[in-house]
UniProtKB/TrEMBL annotation:
Pfam families: DUF150_C, RimP_N. Residues 14-80 form the Ribosome maturation factor RimP N-terminal domain. This is Ribosome maturation factor RimP. It is found in: Cytoplasm. Coiled coil: none annotated. Keywords: Cytoplasm, Ribosome biogenesis. Required for maturation of 30S ribosomal subunits. Belongs to the RimP family. Residues 84-153 form the Ribosome maturation factor RimP C-terminal domain.
Amino acid sequence: MNIEKRVKELVEEKIADKPNLFLVDVKMHSNGKLIVLLDGDNGVGIDDCVQVSRHVGFHLEEENVIETAYNLEVSSPGIDYPLSSIRQYAKNVGRNLAIKMADGAKREGKLTAVTEDAIIIEEKIKEKGKKAETIESVIPIDKITETKVLISFK
């Protein structure tokens, strides 16, 4: 059985009664580290991570899914982790984003809205010799390769 697939099933089973939580990613690394990333519409708490960790760990041991030693980590994705779902985008409306496009272009702007298949950002366009202009851009999700939240210390 695929370890990552089984872990996803176990996490979804555990958070089924918590509609504000969602699974972001599961990765099994060759060094034995199994990472589960959870997020929530209002963030994810340590108690949620602990409950998921116990549930997943218990079932993996019970079913003997992983035959070698492993280290299970359940946490929220850090601020530097790329956004990967519509729910993560929706949670970050109002924040500035750095976006890498499929065509290699890079864009930055303030996320103002999210639809099922696109995001809307306000970006500043500066033409030589002219004042910077703020425009609203609709970017289809399928044209984005990576999006990260820009951290501001102002």
